[in-house]
C-alpha cells in the first residue's frame, strides 16, 4: 500500500530514506559493514533493530515535547511501519517513546483547531491509517509505555498486541476526549470495549478516565505494570514469548479476532472522515478546543 501517495511535498521530502549502508536490509548486517545492523527512520521516528533479539525492532517516538500525533509525525510512523512490515527479517516491533515522561499526548490538537475542512479530512485519514496499520499488523506489536498516554496515545497503546506500562503514578492512560469537550470516534470506543469490556469502557469513555498504572492494570487497559527501568526488558521478554508461536498461525488468529472491528471502519472510512470534519468544524467544538489549548498554556504559568 503506497502510503506516500498524496503526501504533501514537504512531508515527502522530510521522509527521504536516511543514508544506509548499501545492501543493509533491516535486521541484517550489510556486506562488509562490520558494525552490525544499522538503524533507520526519519526525524521523528527512530527504528533500531533490537541487538538482543533477532527479528525485533524498537520503534522510538521522538516528536518533542509530547509526541503529539501531528500529520508529519503520523506520516513518519506510517512509513516506518510499512518498511518494517515489508522487511521479512522482522517479526516484532516494540513501540516506545524517546520523550521523557510521555508516551504520546495523543492527536495533535493544532491539526484540528482553526484548520480548514480539507486539512482536517487529510489529517483524519492519516489517523485512521495509523490505527489500521498498527491494529492489523502481521508483526507482533508490543507497547513499552514509558509515559503518560491520553486519548490518541491510549489508542496507539490499545492497538498493540500487549501493553507494558511503567509503574509511575504520573503515567496515566485513557480515552479522555470528553474532558476536552469532544468524543472518541466509534473505532476508538470499539478497541476500548474489546480490551476492558462494555461497562468499564462505557464508564471510562463518558468520564474521560485517565487510569493511573495500578487502576489501568486492574481494569485491563494494560497487561503488565513494572518498574520504569524494566519496561523495555519486560517488553523484550514478552516479545520472545509471542515470537515462539509460529507466525502464520498467530497472524491468522490475530486477524480472526481483530478484522470485524477493523472492518467497521474500513466499510465506512469516507463517512467517518466526513463525520469527523463536520463534528470538529462545529463552532462549539472549536471553542472547546480553544479553551483546552488555553488551559494547557496557562498550566505552564
Ligand atoms: C461524530 C464524531 C466523529 C468523529 C470523532 C470526533 C472527534 C474526535 C476528535 C478527536 C479525537 C481526539 C483524540 C485525541 O488524542 S485529542 C488530544 C488529547 N490529548 C490530551 O488531552 C493531552 C493534552 N496534553 C497534556 O495533558 C499535557 O501536555 C501532557 C500531560 C501530555 C504533558 O504535560 P507537560 O506539562 O509535560 O507539557 P505541556 O507544557 O502541557 O505541553 C508541552 C507543549 O505541548 C503542547 N501540547 C500538549 N499536548 C498537546 C496535544 N495533544 N496537541 C497539541 N499540542 C499539545 C502544549 O500546549 C505545550 O505547547 P507550548 O509549549 O505551550 O507551545
Automatic annotation (TrEMBL):
The broad enzyme category this protein falls into is isomerase
Catalytic activity, as annotated: (2E)-tetradecenoyl-CoA = (3Z)-tetradecenoyl-CoA; (3Z)-decenoyl-CoA = (2E)-decenoyl-CoA; a (3E)-enoyl-CoA = a 4-saturated (2E)-enoyl-CoA; (3Z)-dodecenoyl-CoA = (2E)-dodecenoyl-CoA
Sorted alphabetically, the Gene Ontology cellular component annotations on this record are: mitochondrial matrix
Keyword Cell membrane annotated? no
Which superkingdom? Answer: Eukaryota
Q: What is its EC number?
A: 5.3.3.8
In its UniProt record, a GO molecular function of this protein is: delta(3)-delta(2)-enoyl-CoA isomerase activity
Sorted alphabetically, the keyword list is: Acetylation, Fatty acid metabolism, Isomerase, Lipid metabolism, Mitochondrion, Transit peptide
Query: Where primarily located?
Result: mitochondrion
Which pathway does this chain act in? Lipid metabolism; fatty acid beta-oxidation
> So what family is this one in?
Belongs to the enoyl-CoA hydratase/isomerase family.
Q: How does it assemble?
A: Homotrimer.
The UniProt function text for this chain reads: Key enzyme of fatty acid beta-oxidation. Able to isomerize both 3-cis (3Z) and 3-trans (3E) double bonds into the 2-trans (2E) form in a range of enoyl-CoA species, with a preference for (3Z)-enoyl-CoAs over (3E)-enoyl-CoAs. The catalytic efficiency of this enzyme is not affected by the fatty acyl chain length.
Q: What is this protein called?
A: Enoyl-CoA delta isomerase 1, mitochondrial
Query: What organism, scientifically named, is this protein from?
Result: Ursus maritimus (Polar bear)
